[in-house]
Design a protein that fits this description.
Length: 149
């Protein structure tokens, strides 16, 4: 038996905030409703759903605009990270997403480290192109210089 719910938060694989979805009774009762990810359609009237959709669309539009501006600013940015290195330019440790995020923060960019697309940690001295996925439609590529301390 399917149950009709309105999502009040994004649920991966199901929908985004404000969507009206049909889910199994148990999924609704045991997961979505207790975690306050959704409400029953009888709780929200159609007018509330429409205003919720309008607010969501406005929020998504402003997030898209902010990401677009941030991409332009980040594209001209390069950061330098100092690290201890041994012979042959091999680092004693590694440069990871958190290090890149911290270096960007010193330049005034608040970038969550989970947005930084780094396949593996940087373990050698050099210059790397690092992709930052700011929005599903926008990503920026920055230069990361790993230099010897």
């Amino acid at each position: 038996m399917a149950k009709e719910l309105i999502l009040i938060n994004d649920v991966p694989g199901l929908g985004i905030e404000g969507d009206v979805v049909q889910v199994a009774e148990g999924y609704a009762r045991n997961f979505l409703l207790p975690k306050k990810l959704a409400v029953r359609t009888s709780v929200m009237s159609s007018r509330q759903v429409e205003s919720h959709h309008a607010a969501r669309d406005e929020r998504l539009r402003s997030e898209r605009e902010r990401a677009e501006v941030l991409v332009i600013n980040l594209e001209s940015t390069s950061i330098t990270i100092s690290a201890k290195a041994g012979e042959g330019g091999k680092l004693f440790g590694s440069v990871q997403r958190g290090d890149i995020s911290a270096a960007l923060k010193t330049q005034g960019f608040e970038i969550d480290q989970h947005l930084i697309q780094l396949k593996k940690a940087l373990r050698e001295l050099g210059v790397y192109d690092v992709v930052i996925k700011l929005h599903p439609e926008f990503q920026a590529t920055i230069k990361v210089w790993v230099v010897e301390e």
